[in-house]
Task: inverse folding
């Protein structure tokens, strides 16, 4: 039976809304000038969910320009965890199936990964933009031999306008990723907080470059 991509994407977006409204149970694990990262056990898989929250010094439009999940977008240029991003199938104006590959990481302890996700883009009445995703299978994306297939469980980024502050954006992001393969838990637990801190730091540089 065909996968209900739109339904799965909508479900991931709903879960993001729930995560956003439910601040309980998160435990701080890393803080930089750009982001505070916290975690709690995931309800989706046998790993952790991570939450990143920070203020990016740019308008929501510029921040969205840097993070929006589109073919040929800016993300592959600034995000060190995204090597390649392709849209495999556009399901609708707001839903697409995408394949992301990541370079080796953590001094090559983590080999290159590939992820196949359905991604949904949603705009809320207050101007907040959401990009939400979750893992799917797709006939055009069989596992590739040079990559370990990883799985993103419902995850996403909210670009939230700050009233009266047009040049600042709250970025709230949730990550729950099963990297696949046979990685020691200690590696996984130290990789995500540092990777999320890097994401915010590189995004901040990217929006500055965009405005320059």
Result:
């Amino acid at each position: 039976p065909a996968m209900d991509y739109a339904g799965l994407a909508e479900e991931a977006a709903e879960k993001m809304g729930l995560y956003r409204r439910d601040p309980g149970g998160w435990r701080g694990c890393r803080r930089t000038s750009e982001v505070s990262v916290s975690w709690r056990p995931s309800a989706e898989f046998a790993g952790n969910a991570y939450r990143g929250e920070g203020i990016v010094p740019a308008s929501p439009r510029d921040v969205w320009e840097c993070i929006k999940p589109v073919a040929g977008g800016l993300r592959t240029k600034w995000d060190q965890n995204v090597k390649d991003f392709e849209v495999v199938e556009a399901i609708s104006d707001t839903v697409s199936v995408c394949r992301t590959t990541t370079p080796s990481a953590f001094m090559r302890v983590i080999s290159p990964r590939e992820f196949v996700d359905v991604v949904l883009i949603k705009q809320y009445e207050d101007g907040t933009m959401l990009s939400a995703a979750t893992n799917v299978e797709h006939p055009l994306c069989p596992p590739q031999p040079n990559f370990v297939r990883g799985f993103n469980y419902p995850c996403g980024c909210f670009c939230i306008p700050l009233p009266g502050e047009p040049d600042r954006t709250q970025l709230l992001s949730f990550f729950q990723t099963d990297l696949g393969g046979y990685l020691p838990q200690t590696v996984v637990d130290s990789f995500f907080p540092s990777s999320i801190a890097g994401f915010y730091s590189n995004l901040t540089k990217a929006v500055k470059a965009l405005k320059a």
User: Anything to note?
Assistant: The first helix runs from residue 5 to 21. Residues 134 and 141 are 15 Å apart (CA to CA).
